């Protein structure tokens, strides 16, 4: 079975001719230990970047790079991080005023910006933040490969270049290429697994307990979701090592205690981020996540074939052919102890099987149903395959066993060739990459007697992993781009730069908000363009925000976790929007305009206002929050048949007409103009001025069967009445507003009475200098006689206990290394 092994250094080998060994060159030894990790890093990051270049993707070409949430979330959040670090954000790490009319930011930071390499974004000019975000992917994958190389050396010594090549196969596994390559925070899980594997070895060696705790903390600081999966994988690795090593019962108990205590302390260190995020998740707008439905067995097995990219939420389990062939020979390798072979093989199979059963899948995903791809933990299986491949390679597999493994891979590919979505690059990877891998391994075996063959084998192994992984990455990118949701989007252009400049030109925060307008470049344009509108997309968007904004006619999607803007002057007045940016007359230009708006803090009478318009209309709900009658909601006559619906109404000539039909999807036609109608995403839409006849006619070509626009889709705005309402709210509202990082303070007119209403949603975490009072989902406090100031501060729920727990963990972390030192000093004094 052997004992816990580490890689020998140059000092382990006696000099030729006998005699005392010379003093080891420690610097040279340390440098030599970097060769393997460096090779793994270069092969991994190089292959991934080569795939970008082959596809002509930005920055190696003109093709868009940002996929799905990369454009809508990750790049905007990294731009928000840039603003925060450079002191240009309207908020701080706890709260942001940019987007959603003010939202918590700590949980978003932890979830979307936790990868330490995300800080590369703050080192470049703001215009190039997206390029830094793209660079996070190859850098993180390369780091994961380098750490896996170190971990493999902990499991069994062997040549640095062999470990480096297999480390690269882990960094370029199917999960990294197909699932997480555009998700910078998830990729930290790829780093966390070998990091925790090294920590497991330290526990078995009974040393470096503080280092173990810090490694756990580093894994969990990066991203709790995939770190949780990596931690479960580390438990599997610890169990395997406890079974396969020759240890006493006491040694096993001590190793388990060291691992458990260090893991507890490490996770406690992250509680200032972890606990608020957990509570924010509980307060978030719920989503309709589907129950886990495992794929068919042939699809699952096809995911293990190299260079295979399956459509949709399917498992990508593969590593390069070199790793698969070596792993396949593991059980046949008699140089490895029988118990070691059986335990590692059984554990690898059980890990794979656990991905197919709902209860174990539920555990892998932290007792939550994934909203998206249900196979988010498959990198754990790939790591197991690479580990088994290394153990086989380190014990010099026989060419016959390697040939049998390669034949099995070809046979499996032949059997699974008709599987749905079978990849076009799979056969070239299996036949070409497999043949070259087999040749390289055969040359390596022959190199035991013919040393000149070893360098040839080394070059061939590096080349085949690089080439096959490049092809696999390019194939995954190409096939994914054909899916509608993954169509690459631009994240930098002349239009986006001018859009940002136009927002800056009319900025007036905190005197008023600026809405970045439409069309949007991303779902988080307010963050990306440093505006203060309603646009926001986050898994933590509170249910309280949804309940406040949805009734007022703001468009949304993703079950209410994504909100869009609305070009509606009543909503502008409610939320103190005093500037908006719109497309200019010339292509790719933007123009900002300012208009009167009430202050962020207004004073409302103690007696609630009730709109005279139909209570079930969006226009009455807007008036109720505004506190004034500004609409006329006419009776609507509906006609038409089938998919063409017509609506007619009579309004005051010269008033401004608006439309709201959250149940309809199709095309809206009025007065010769056409515009898309996207049910709940559209929100309230302007129809334009009411003609002199006063008659409005609207046609909807809808694809929604059985649905209508409802009884009150049209509202006609009385602009002079709205102007009067805005003037009144301005005259009676705050005379001065100061908005800090996570707080707001307003000076009120003398003698103000009633209720102070803050133009932000009443999300959990706000505390004011008076008890909070419900006001249609907005933050509000009652005013007692003599009150001339209102101040509110936002503190994420769970932050205080999280900081306390982290302080205790830090004390424990410091106490462990300091206690022996203090004992020695006390004994010395005696």
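Sequence proposed for the structure above (830 residues):
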């Amino acid at each position: 079975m052997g004992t816990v092994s580490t890689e020998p250094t140059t000092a382990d080998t006696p000099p030729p001719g006998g005699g005392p060994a010379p003093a080891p060159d420690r610097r040279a030894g340390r440098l030599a230990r970097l060769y393997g990790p460096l090779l793994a890093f270069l092969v991994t990051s190089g292959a991934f970047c080569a795939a970008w270049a082959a596809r002509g993707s930005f920055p190696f070409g003109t093709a868009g790079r940002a996929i799905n949430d990369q454009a809508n979330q990750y790049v905007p959040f990294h731009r928000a991080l840039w603003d925060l670090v450079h002191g240009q954000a309207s908020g701080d790490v706890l709260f942001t005023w940019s987007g959603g009319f003010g939202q918590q930011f700590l949980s978003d930071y932890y979830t979307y910006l936790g990868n330490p390499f995300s800080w590369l974004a703050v080192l470049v000019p703001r215009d190039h933040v997206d390029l830094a975000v793209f660079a996070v992917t190859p850098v993180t994958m390369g780091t994961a490969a380098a750490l896996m190389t170190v971990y493999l050396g902990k499991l069994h010594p062997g040549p640095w270049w062999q470990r480096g090549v297999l480390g690269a196969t882990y960094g370029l596994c199917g999960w990294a290429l197909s699932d997480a390559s555009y998700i910078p925070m998830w990729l930290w899980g790829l780093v966390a697994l070998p990091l925790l594997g090294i920590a497991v070895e330290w526990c078995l060696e009974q040393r470096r307990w503080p280092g173990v705790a810090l490694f756990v903390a580093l894994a969990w600081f990066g991203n709790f979701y995939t770190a949780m999966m990596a931690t479960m994988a580390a438990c599997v690795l610890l169990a395997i090592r406890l079974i396969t090593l020759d240890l006493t019962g006491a040694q096993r108990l001590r190793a388990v205690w060291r691992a458990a205590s260090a893991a507890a302390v490490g996770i406690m260190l992250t509680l200032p981020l972890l606990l608020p995020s957990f509570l924010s998740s509980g307060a978030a707008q719920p989503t309709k996540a589907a129950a886990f439905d495992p794929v068919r067995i042939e699809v699952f097995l096809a995911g293990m074939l190299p260079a295979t990219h399956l459509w949709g939420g399917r498992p990508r389990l593969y590593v390069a052919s070199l790793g698969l062939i070596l792993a396949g020979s593991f059980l046949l390798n008699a140089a490895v102890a029988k118990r070691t072979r059986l335990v590692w093989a059984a554990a690898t199979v059980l890990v794979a099987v656990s991905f197919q059963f709902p209860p174990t899948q539920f555990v892998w995903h932290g007792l939550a149903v994934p909203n998206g791809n249900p196979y988010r933990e498959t990198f754990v299986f790939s790591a197991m395959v690479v580990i088994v491949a290394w153990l086989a390679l380190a014990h010099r597999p026989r060419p016959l066993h390697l040939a049998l493994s390669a034949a099995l891979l070809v046979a499996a590919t032949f059997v699974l060739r008709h599987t749905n979505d079978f990849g076009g690059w799979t056969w070239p990877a299996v036949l070409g990459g497999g043949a070259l891998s087999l040749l390289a391994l055969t040359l390596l075996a022959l190199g035991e007697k013919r040393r000149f063959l070893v360098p040839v084998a080394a070059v061939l192994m590096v080349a085949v992993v690089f080439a096959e992984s490049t092809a696999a990455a390019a194939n995954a990118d190409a096939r994914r781009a054909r899916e509608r949701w993954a169509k690459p989007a631009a994240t930098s252009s002349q239009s986006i730069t001018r859009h940002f400049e136009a927002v800056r030109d009319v900025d007036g925060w905190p005197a008023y908000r600026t809405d970045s307008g439409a069309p949007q470049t991303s779902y988080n344009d307010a963050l990306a363009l440093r505006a203060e509108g309603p646009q926001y997309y986050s898994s933590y968007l509170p249910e309280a925000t949804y309940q406040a904004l949805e009734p007022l006619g703001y468009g949304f999607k993703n079950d209410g976790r994504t909100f869009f803007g609305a070009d509606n002057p009543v909503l502008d007045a409610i939320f103190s929007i005093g500037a908006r940016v719109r497309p200019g007359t010339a292509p790719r230009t933007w123009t900002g305009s300012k208009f009167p708006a009430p202050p962020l803090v207004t004073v409302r009478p103690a007696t609630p206002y009730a709109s005279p318009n139909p209570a079930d209309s969006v226009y009455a709900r807007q008036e109720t929050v505004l506190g004034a009658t500004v609409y006329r909601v006419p009776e609507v006559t509906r006609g038409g048949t089938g998919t063409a619906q017509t609506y007619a109404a009579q309004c005051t000539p010269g008033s401004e007409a608006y439309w709201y039909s959250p149940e309809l999807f199709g095309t809206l036609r009025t007065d010769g103009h056409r515009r898309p109608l996207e049910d709940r995403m559209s929100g309230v839409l302007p129809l334009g001025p009411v003609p002199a006849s006063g008659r409005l006619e609207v046609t909807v070509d809808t694809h929604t069967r059985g649905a209508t626009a409802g009884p009150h889709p049209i509202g006609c705005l009385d602009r002079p009445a709205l102007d009067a309402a805005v003037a009144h709210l301005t005259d009676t509202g705050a005379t001065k507003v100061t908005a800090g990082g996570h707080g707001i303070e307003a000076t009120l007119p003398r003698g103000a009475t009633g209720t102070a209403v803050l133009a932000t949603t009443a999300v959990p975490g706000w505390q004011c200098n008076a008890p909070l009072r419900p006001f249609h989902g907005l933050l509000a406090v009652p005013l007692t006689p003599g009150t001339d100031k209102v101040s509110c501060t936002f503190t994420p729920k769970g932050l205080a206990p999280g900081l306390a727990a982290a302080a205790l963990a830090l004390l424990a972390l410091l106490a462990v290394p300091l206690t022996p030192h203090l004992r020695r000093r006390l004994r010395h004094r005696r």
